[in-house]
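Q: Hi! First time asking for a complex rather than a single chain. Here are the components, and I think there are two in total. Is that enough to go on?
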Amino acid sequence: MGQLLELSKKIDEIISQKGMDRLTTRGRIGLKSGVLMAFNENTPDDAAKIAKIKEAAREVLGTGV
Amino acid sequence: MRLSVKFKLLPIIVIGIALLTGIFYYTSMNAMEKNLNTVSHNGVKTAKEMFYNLEDNDVKMLSSSLEMFLSNKEFKEVYLKNNREELYNYGQPLYNQLKIDFGITHFYFHLPNGTNFVRLHSKTQYGDKITRKTLEKSVQANGFGTGLELGKTAFALRVVHPYYNGTNLIGYVELGEEIDHFLKVMKKQTNEDFGIFINKQFIKREDWKSTRDAKGLSDNYDDLKDYVAIDTTTDSISSFVANDEGRLSKVPAEGEVFNKYQKDSSTYITGGFPLYDAGGSNVGTVVVVMDVTPLENAANESSRFVLIVSIISAIAISLIVIFLVNKYILKPLDNIVDATTRVAGGDFTAEIKAQSNDEIGDLAVMIEGFKTILVGTAKDLEAAQENKK
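A: Yes, that's all I need. Here is the structure of the assembled complex.
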């Protein structure tokens, strides 16, 4: 557990580095991947969701996570 | 490539409005052309009415003069003496007075058999057989015979009446006038130019040349192929007729418009109506040349104005349509997209507001409902996971 939350935090860091709007950017990643970007430490790990979010994040952020 | 609806709509709006502008401009041009056409037809119609009114009035004037003369007993006594010289001399004061007062240029006495006895306007000419339609009509009607008749080189309006001594027919009296003044009066009243064109089959070349020489005028016999202008208000009229000469023999009774010409930055429209002689034969055509430059200029100015107003209106309408599409469709959609994206990003507080009471507002309400369901479900799942722990 916690892998999705970790990924979410990494994405937040990149968003912050790039000076993008956090919620809008996360929303675009969420809509692209089909995953609601709301995680906590209890969110169960899901390899398929992680792959989808990474793929979407690469497209939206322009860099890999 | 992503392209905003705004830019997708723009060409449609621009093409649509350009099309409307074109239709509006074409309609306006068409209306002006029709107006010019109506004016031209009316010009020909008016000229024809004016010409034949002048003929009617002059027939009345000649008939009245002749009626007055026929009741003159002294003149009849002189005529009955059968002395040509005496009649000629006796008639001169009256003839000259009629010439001055009414423009009467022909005064004849014919014998009952149709032979001319004396011409008060031409002493040396007599004894010829008169074969004119007006005399023929007078004989047949035993009254007035009137109408236009083409002489060797010109038209004359003639009025003939039997001459009686009691119940005995002693001859015929004829009065006539040349009709040169018709075109002058018409020109004065309308400011348009006119010309009477006669087919060359009715005019002998040598007669024409000698008449023109006698009047000190240039010989215009060869200006046109088949027609000759026997009377005009301007020398240049033949140049207008040159291209339409073939139409002169086919002009309908009501008259018609021939053509439009540009000459020295002026616009002219030509037309004409047939000229009938006393026997009802079509012997020529009266051509009308109308200067429509002021009308054409006004029409062009109006067209330019219509075009400019249309273009400005098209631009203004395009801008208004784009503004309205932006305000009532694109902006609310942008707001919905923005709020939806924020919710997907985890901001469950983002509110999707219905900004208008229309389909876009309905969409916002619906998505706000979905968001509430989604957020509720997510929270329920989270609570369930907490409980599992």
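A: Chain A has three helices and no strands. Let me know if you'd like any chain examined more closely.
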